[in-house]
Specification:
single chain, about 160 residues, alpha/beta, Transcription Regulator spoIIAA, three-stranded antiparallel beta sheet, 2 helices, 7 strands
Length: about 160
Amino acid sequence: MAINTASAPFFATGSLGSEQRDRLSRLLQESGEQGLFRVVLLHHPPRVEDEKWRKRLTDGRDLCNILGHYGAELVLHGHSHRTIESGIPWGERMIPAFGIPSASAIGHKAGRRAQYYLYKICCEADHWSVRISVRGYQPDSDDFAPQNEHQLSVPVISSTSC
């Protein structure tokens, strides 16, 4: 589910607005009832504490409340041009949230160079297996190389397994 957090020109803050939040709530509920793996995509980090005040998602707390109520299996965002790995509380567990640097940023500082993530999602009876491969730009060879790998196990929420 992709949501638009764009703002007016020359502003770095973003927002969803009430109409989009309502639609997201319905989609998360319906897709959760179907037992689907739900990925929420947005430009801004959902958690207001992950970005400076002047660059934040102004209704990020509302978004996190929606996610905390209806759930999702993964949240992906950009905007900050740096690696951010966090979580959004959902019941007794956390929804993994990943923000990554730009895929086109040459950057001279570690952590600010271009990266992209590859996600492989498989259902294994009672849980989703999520393998995340991080590839980063290597200035010396002028290409992308493996940098890191994460493995997540996310419980299936539906009464039927996938």
